Amino acid sequence: MLSKKMRNILFGFILLLSLQATGQSCEDLRYIDPLFDVNTTFNIEYQEARPYGSLFNQPYRLNIYEPEGDTLSHRPLMIFQFGGGYLVGDRVLPPAPALCNYWAERGYVAASIDYRLGLSAVNQGSAERAVYRGVQDLQAALRFLCEFSETYGIDTNNIIVSGNSAGAFTTLHSTFMEQIQAPSSYTGFGIGLDSYSLGGLYDSGNSYWGNREVKVHGIIANWGAILDTSLIGDSPDDWVPSILFHGSADNAVPYVYGQPFSSPFFPDVYGSVPINERLDNTTIPNKFVPLIGAGHEPELLNDAYLDTILWESQDFMYEYVLKPEIQSVSGNQNPTLNSTELYTVTANDPIIQLCTSLNNGTVISTNLNQVEIEWTTPGYDTLQIIAGNHILAYDTIFVPVQVAVSIGLEEVRNEVTARIYPNPFTDNTTIQLNGEIEKGCVMIISDVLGRVVYSKLVTTLITVNSVKTGKGVFQVHLEDKTGNRRFIGKLIAQ
User: How many CB atoms lie within 10 A of CB 210?
Assistant: First the structure.
């Protein structure tokens, strides 16, 4: 069986061959395969902040990993935060170098950050404050990287935050916790080392980026947990695609619910299972990868777990964060022979590049999200369109086309028009008929071989389910009481 890497290389090679006839090239391996060497810059100071147990600020630093020789001016950012229970750890310890090199080789800018450590092991409030400081430090690092995004070639609209253990706690709380939802312990309590207020979430450590919150666009949480799952999905900016990894035998961070390390001095937290359940009850794209039988941070001793995390994460982030989503292609799907047609691609992200593959015609011109095609051969064809955004991530759509020798007389005489939406469709579509419809007419849907797959007595508004039609390209006709049929449109079930 081919490895994932070999499958991607083979797919890319076939794709490039299929597009050579049009003189276009859409490279689909960036963010998937290792294309670059890595240039690392160490010990970049991003903030000064007061750690636990100190009266004075101290500097905190990060390392930046960049794809060497990359000509793209703005790349997605991947931040990693190490684990260690807010007591131990460092930005240079495993698995940070392996993770950051992996992402940079694929075209990301990656950063591994240090953050403040220290807490009282006999006080729940102190543990909460450690998480809160972690969020402050993460936000300070994000502000720094946004402030100097031109220096490091970072696209501030594609920021992904990841973390292991304590780093995952920080990731989850930074993403889903608003200032008003922070535990009251952050304002200080008692006397001594934790008696002072930590201040706001977004005004600690530095004053970059106007001290405003940096919104992230994707998160990777490995063996993490959250104080309260109700923090997730309660505000519009919580819509952040999320992927979770957790060992079912984790004895440090609860897989379901409990206290970290089973210690009564830590607050109860919700692990990846209830976090996943909460995410499933929202519209936030998410995936949970349970590592059955694995303990805490199993990737440190078993590379297979690290591979799983990386492969699953890269595919998830490409699908839900990086690539544009083609929403529709407008243009004539029933062109006539030797006609020239314009097709316009609509997506959720500005399109700067189109690559088109077809058999029955010739690409005349391409301009951003539009392609002009001359249809030179009659018959059925499939128009493959690959659309790329500004970070060179791509989405693909297939549009069925039938090139006719001439316009049929029945289509010219047809006084009934139909609006079919959405089209193409996956689950349900609606056919809205306009014009004079004879009583007793039946709507007939047939496949490309003329076989009837669905029929219904005509009303002005008809809902069609793909379960009834199956997948494919279909013709829609109106049939009157005498058996005469009139063509009203094409239907595409994907």
Answer: 9
Q: State the pLDDT at residue 38.
A: 98
Q: Residue 35 has which token pair?
A: 């294309």
This prediction has a pTM of: 0.79
What's the token pair of residue 66? 């960049």
Nearest in space to 391 (alpha carbons), one of 328, 317, 329, 327: 317
Distance of CA 200 to the CA centre of its chain: 29
Task: Find where tokens 């930005």 sit.
Answer: 91
- What are the structural domains of the chain? 31-322 (3.40.50.1820), 326-403 (2.60.40.1080), 416-493 (2.60.40.10)
- Of 220, 240, 125, 270, the closest CA to residue 176 belongs to 240
CB atoms within 10 A of CB 183: 18
Q: Which two tokens stand for residue 8?
A: 């991607």
pLDDT tens-digit map of 18-62: 333 334 578 768 999 999 999 999 999 999 999 999 999 999 999
pLDDT digits (tens, 9 = 90+) for 292-319: 999 999 999 999 999 999 999 999 999 9
DSSP letter at 150 equals H
- Helix 96-105 with 303-317: angle, nearest 10 deg: 40
CA dihedral 28, 32, 38, 40 (to 10 degrees): 120
